[in-house]
Amino acid sequence: MLECHKLNVPGRLQAFTGRVNPGCRVHIIGPNGAGKTSLLARIAGMLDGEGSVSLAGHQLDSLSGKALSQLRGYLCQQSTPASLMPVFQYLSLHQPAGADPVLLDQTVAMLTSALHLQDKLSRPVTRLSGGEWQRVRLVAVLLQVWPTLNPHAHLLLLDEPMNSLDVAQQLALDRLITQFCASGNIAVISDHDLNHTLHHAHQVWLMAGGRVDIAGTREEVMQVSRLSPVFGVDFQIHRVGGQQWLMTTMGNN
Question: What residues pair up with 5 in beta bridges, in sequence order?
Fold first, then answer.
């Protein structure tokens, strides 16, 4: 279980208290500047502030960076390759300590295949496109917490992970996140695509102005009456192909 108690970053994030059960996928939504990145970084232990975070009985704020890395994986919104190392070496820096070598090779093969990176393993990370680098970063953070390699990890924190991914790669990432959560783990993801949240999230945290306006189930939060005032856009919900879709309207002038 993930528990956030009065998490606060002065000037950036107002106090937030919430609880997430094992196996749950949480999406954080809100307009630009709402505080989504600050909340994720605070949960990850990468941003100083007030309040506390506990995960499976561990108080994350009291742990060293090494201990944190064994319990949770965190993908920040942007990162630039800083060396000439090849992709396979970069991934090796994120493998869990003590992982079984056979399982490790199998997991690397599975993750790189799922995100279409098999032919990029020997390429220097500085010679990757933006989309390729994003996928390498995703494989690295998934490798760090993958259940068969690291039974101590329980949490995956992803800040806009779909950036620079095409449709097929987004579907592949969603399958991997679903698989991670199916093992009883928690994923917390910031998302700008409201329909993606509508179709995939179990819980939703709706943010505005540095605060969580409402945290609840997808059905509770993804309502036109809640979304329109926060985003300043008139929405309608339509059912197409057996699914609900949020669509914007021109509104009344």
Answer: 52
Check if the beta carbon of residue 132 is closer than 8 Å to that of residue 90: no
* CA pair distance 17, 177, nearest whole angstrom: 24
pTM for the predicted model, two decimal places: 0.94
Distance of alpha carbon 108 from alpha carbon 122, whole angstroms: 14
- Give the distance, in angstroms, between the CA of residue 225 and the centroid of all CA atoms in the same chain: 26
CA separation for the pair 211, 209 (Å, rounded): 6
Residue from 31, 223, 70 nearest 151 by CA: 70
Residue 7, φ and ψ in degrees, nearest 5: -65, 130
Closest by Cα among 34, 66, 56, 59 to 160: 34
pLDDT band at 251 (very low <50, low <70, confident <90, very high): low
- Residue 81 pLDDT: 80
- What 3-state class would DSSP assign to 155? strand
pLDDT tens across 123-179, in order? 999 999 999 999 999 999 999 999 999 999 999 999 999 999 999 999 999 999 999
Q: What is the pLDDT of residues 204-222, one digit of tens each?
A: 999 999 999 999 999 999 9
What gap in Å lies between CA 111 and CA 114, rounded to an integer? 5
CA 206-28-63 angle, to 5 degrees, is: 125
Q: Are 211 and 35 in contact (CB under 8 A)?
A: yes
**Cα–Cα dist 168/186, whole Å:** 23
Query: In this structure, are residues 10 and 176 in contact, taking their beta carbons and an 8 Å threshold?
Result: no
Q: Could you give the CA distance from residue 155 to residue 66 in angstroms, rounded to a whole number?
A: 15
225, 232, 233, 238, 241 from 249: Cα distances, Å: 14, 11, 8, 12, 20
